[in-house]
Amino acid sequence: MTTSxxxxxxxxxxxxxxxxxxxxxxxxxxxxxxxxxxxxVRFDAPVGTAEERASAQLWPGKWFDATGFAKRxxxxxRPWYVHTGADLNLNFPAYNADAHAPVYAPADGTVAVADxxxxxxxIVVIKHVLEDGTAVYSRLAHLERxxxxxxxxxxxxxxxxxxxxxxxxxxWHLHYDxxxxxxxEKPTDWPGDDEPRVRRDYYDPLTFTRDRH
Length: 213
Prior knowledge:
Blueprint: H1 5-30, H2 50-54, E1 64-65, E2 72-73, E3 81-82, E4 86-89, E5 102-104, E6 109-117, E7 121-129, E8 135-146, E9 153-154, E10 159-163, E11 174-179, H3 195-201, E12 202-203, H4 205-212
Antiparallel strand pairs: 1-4, 2-3, 4-11, 5-10, 6-7, 6-9, 7-8, 8-10, 8-11, 11-12
């Protein structure tokens, strides 16, 4: 059986086409993998029911902030302070309904502090690492109890403990702030009446949580 010139040319064309496709495939194999951007780290409120914390409302349900971020205030005859975060309270369906209420991890992270400290009472500090590598430290204070230990990895919504009153020295509420500085080194950090330092070293927890909810 003889092969016609047209058939020979057709075989050559197919061979060149196959060679070109193989070269393209090898080029694709040589392209390094492009890493996917890390997922955005989400934050929820540290109090409220699961449904309330999943909703867009902040603060959740009937919870409210009794003090406010960077607000100047005074308790009795004590010195004036500028608040570093939020004092979360719940007075519905009854006054002091926040007493013994569950407190949850606002985001994934590692427990950096779980301790009983002067003035602050029982306190938990969690180190969170954002998608760009920035560390944020959440501080949850005046707890009645905590159920985590230093070094423990927690996920968003993990039960940390319950709302307390700083061993009976304060009204029932949860002090909650988000720091840019390393609170594992100084968990009792308190700028006093220094508003510029509060704004430099702490985030407004309402704005921050709303942006990452």
